[in-house]
Design brief:
Helix content: 25-40%
Shape: globular
Distance between the termini: 55 Å
Order of helices and strands: EEHHHHEEEEHHHEHHEEEHEEEEHHHHE
Number of helices: 14
Radius of gyration: 23 Å
């Protein structure tokens, strides 16, 4: 897979295929005993790595535990590679989390917590990810392991899992901001951020996006407070006031079974100079399902939006729909490159495995993007068509 004699790692793609150049990322080995500790695990775990083309797992375990390389440096190389081949001026950064089901209590960050992957509370680790999506493709470009307070407040437990002493508790929204900051500071071409309500419902997260002057369409709970000159109201209460002509049937992107069709309504919200930059506007976006639930109700999702004045309704809808890109990345990374196929307990080994999976996933995304059929499809795409709250009719 790799050419180890030169200064870069080259993934095979033929003379005309995409090449991912990963700089040497050597660093001192901080925990030389990790490999020995891991090998003492159960025989089932010892076999991990055999599927990577080796007769024994020793080489893979050394790569994850003892080899001298910088996972964060490789992460930066992966991000640069993604931007080189998938970069889009209208790109969207998507933050979300995924669960990794585990047994036992030794893996860094593991505890009983809600896993969206399982749809219930499970014993699992949670990884917070940043994906990049544009007209040419999508991939994962950053990752952080969420450490609950049950871990950060138990330093002995952290030491046993090789969690660095300087790592303190950080909310998932804080981890998301750290990843977004790295992407924006590195010059990733993106005009938008989108996220589900676990992040969008955090006022500090939205305020941080405001300060970074990047547009966003983020989901919020139905109880989200919406300020107006007539007094504050809830998002769901405001949407009940939308006239019937405000609802428009639109696709927010292609899905596995065709266009993702919903009814959408957009309302302009009041703008105050102490909360909104000059030349920027705010909107409430509502997405209504076309088929009722078993209770006969049409589910509605709510989004807070902030972007330059003049942004079209269709653009807000497009960005809202782009959040599904990260779900697609999770699915393909788990099924195609083994994102969740690991048996490591230590903090740095988790980052190493996940980073290598991201590298493989990005290579596949780039390969698909530059294939003739993908290029033909991309070239044929066309763009989609008394109160101080104004509904767009």
């Amino acid at each position: 897979m790799a050419e180890s004699s030169g200064p870069h790692l080259r993934l095979p793609g033929g003379d005309s295929g995409p090449r991912c150049r990963v700089q040497r990322r050597e660093r001192p080995v901080e925990h030389p005993g990790h490999n020995r500790g891991h090998r003492r695990g159960r025989s089932g775990r010892r076999r991990r790595g055999v599927g990577a083309g080796e007769r024994t797992p020793d080489g893979m375990q050394r790569l994850l535990h003892a080899a001298a390389w910088d996972a964060d440096g490789v992460r930066d190389d992966v991000r640069s590679y993604a931007v080189e081949h998938l970069g889009d001026p209208d790109g969207v950064l998507v933050v979300d989390e995924t669960g990794f089901l585990k047994k036992g209590t030794k893996s860094a960050g593991v505890q009983r917590q809600y896993s969206g992957t399982a749809g219930r509370i499970e014993n699992c680790q949670l990884g917070v990810f940043c994906a990049y999506t544009g007209s040419r493709g999508r991939t994962l470009i950053d990752r952080e392991l969420y450490l609950p307070k049950s871990w950060t407040e138990d330093r002995q437990r952290c030491r046993e899992a090789s969690v660095p002493e300087g790592v303190v508790f950080a909310t998932k929204a804080t981890l998301a901001k750290n990843m977004l900051a790295r992407a924006l500071d590195a010059g990733v071409p993106a005009r938008w951020v989108t996220a589900d309500e676990a992040y969008g419902g955090d006022g500090k997260f939205r305020a941080w996006l405001d300060d970074r002057r990047i547009g966003y369409v983020v989901a919020v709970p139905r109880s989200q407070t919406i300020p107006s000159t007539a007094g504050c109201t809830r998002a769901d209460h405001l949407v009940t006031q939308a006239p019937s002509q405000a609802w428009k049937r639109r696709s927010c992107g292609a899905g596995a079974k065709g266009p993702r069709m919903f009814d959408w309504a957009v309302a302009s919200l009041p703008v105050y100079e102490w909360t909104t930059a000059a030349g920027w506007g705010r909107w409430l976006l509502a997405r209504r399902a076309l088929t009722p639930t078993t209770k006969g109700e049409f589910e509605i999702a709510y989004y807070m939006c902030c972007a330059p004045t003049g942004t079209s309704d269709n653009e807000l809808i497009r960005v809202a729909g782009s959040r599904w890109a990260v779900e697609d990345c999770f699915q393909t990374a788990k099924t195609e490159v083994g994102l969740d196929q690991y048996h490591v307990r230590h903090y740095d080994a988790w980052y190493r495995h996940i980073t290598l999976a991201m590298l493989a996933h990005t290579y596949l995304a780039v390969t698909a993007a530059i294939a003739p059929k993908a290029l033909a499809a991309a070239s044929s795409r066309s763009p989609s068509a008394k109160t101080d709250v104004s509904w767009h009719t």
